[in-house]
């Protein structure tokens, strides 16, 4: 097994692991959603205000030391000197002559002049500033991300998994999407999700998504062989993470289990059963879709058993109980183990979902 893992690692490793790259090199890989920026006119007006503040500060500083220049300065002269100095026009009709005035120009006015030019010049410096800000944002995110959920693949299955997570109250900041398709990542980013561009079969991409600190990983690629490789990689670098994987064909179920998946969903068989039921009992299919849908209606939920429910038969509780989870094992309501509720049990039950509940989340 170790030899096979080393083979997979060697096959998919890169020259430099992404998680070891500096933050500024990850700008085209990691995307962190942010609030809507102000309009260009607001940004321009803000820059002009900052520039005027700097000009006023230099004018006041110059006027306070009016005796240190080639002539006694009026306040208008100080404003004039501030304008021509900060804009680097420099006519030379007013110059500092005392040591004190020259020292003030070197230590204070020159740095302000540079800041003034940065504010007014240019687009290039603005882009560099934006990239630096994003690099710092990525750095903070990598340090703080803990106990989140990583979703590998943002196709039909991945989008449905994210919708279910959001409907269950998981904040968007706690979901990271990994995919190789930029359009899918753009769609995920528009929903407020953090995205990582790259193949999840590579350990460095998974590490960059924070899999080693994740609570759960949803493996939902389009191909079964990719799902197996991703599950192997995740289980190797994150032994304690809960892995939920999806496969198209039931014959690949055992491969996912052997690779380390805690739970496997067979998408093709589930869809096939639904199609078969729809031809005979369409109302059953409608109810099943209602239970699986995060919208208003019914849903299957899990909760901790209450103190007043210990020792009772789950069939006699107020909720419609479908099963009992005890020590990580699921016992259906008709099994002998589920005859009595024990302390620490968790109940799977049918919950009524109201629209106001969804709005509250």
UniProtKB/TrEMBL annotation:
Transmembrane portions of the chain: 44-63, 103-128
Signal peptide interval: none
InterPro entries xref list: K_chnl_dom, NAD(P)-bd_dom_sf, RCK_N, Trk_Ktr_HKT_K-transport
Membrane topology qualifier: Multi-pass membrane protein
GO biological process entries: monoatomic ion transmembrane transport; potassium ion transport
Highest rank taxon of the organism: Bacteria
Subcellular location: Cell membrane
Entry GO terms, CC: plasma membrane
UniProt keyword terms in alphabetical order: Ion channel, Ion transport, Membrane, Transmembrane, Transmembrane helix, Transport
Protein name: Voltage-gated potassium channel Kch
Organism per entry: Corynebacterium choanae
